[in-house]
Amino acid sequence: SIIAVHSRLNRLKKGEQDLAFCLGGDDAVELKPLFQQKLYLMVSRNHPLANREYVRFEDFAREKMVMLEEGTYLRAFMETIFQSHGMQPNTLFTVKECNAAAQYVSLHMGVAVLPMLPATETVAIRALPIDDPENEFSRPVYLAWPRNRTMPAYIRRIRNFILAHFESLNA
After folding, report:
1. Which of 81, 125, 150, 167 is most buried, with most CB under 10 Å away?
2. Beta strand 64-68 pairing with 90-95
3. 113 exposed, middle or buried (CB, 10 Å; 0-12, 13-18, 19+)?
4. Would you place residue 26 in the very low, low, confident or very high pLDDT band (cuts 50, 70, 90)?
5. What whole-number distance in Å separates Cα of residue 130 and Cα of residue 52?
6. What's the gap between Cα 150 and its chain centre?
7. CB of 105 within 8 A of CB of 44?
């Protein structure tokens, strides 16, 4: 959620934390992109779309949606997608975080666009890849650290290890 992201960034800025995985930042932190996290349409197992191998935006555009709160990356992303198609999402529920959205989906209370999470890997939910020729359904994940603070050598080694690991995965 946006609160968790702000709290991580605030801890970085205050010196309470040295590194953080996040979806974005501001001028006070250095951001290094690590990977693109795929997003899926989460539907309950008995939803009419559940037997599909993949979906397109048009397949779920009019579905009742479980959306994250305003100010989150996923909310802004989904609103942009809907606006690009001249539509507004049919928002049934608004929740604070992805696990809560997955719970609503598992209870047959709408569909949601989410990354894979432990909560989505249940028998009650089906994660459908989204094949959309106009938009890539993914979000960036970054490693962040304070811009204007000297990093201890052991933290620098951890940061470099993380960066090298993800660089090798993306090569």
Report:
1. 125
2. parallel
3. buried
4. confident
5. 11
6. 30
7. yes
Residues in the chain: 171
Cβ partners under 8 Å of residue 131, min gap 6 = 54, 55, 56
The closest of 145, 138, 141 to 34, measured between CA atoms, is 141
pLDDT digits (tens, 9 = 90+) for 37-84: 999 999 999 999 999 999 999 999 999 999 999 888 889 999 999 999
CA distance 33 to 73: 15
Question: What are the beta bridge partners of residue 128?
Answer: 41
Nearest to 156 by CA among 13, 47, 18, 16: 18
Closest CA to 21 of 32, 158, 139: 32
Which phi and psi (to 5°) does residue 151 adopt?
-95, 130
List, in order, residues 6 or more apart from 138 with CB less than 8 Å away. Answer: 36, 37, 38, 39
Residues 112-130, mean pLDDT to the nearest whole number: 87
Give the model confidence (pLDDT) of 86-116 as tens digits.
999 999 999 998 999 999 999 999 999 999 9
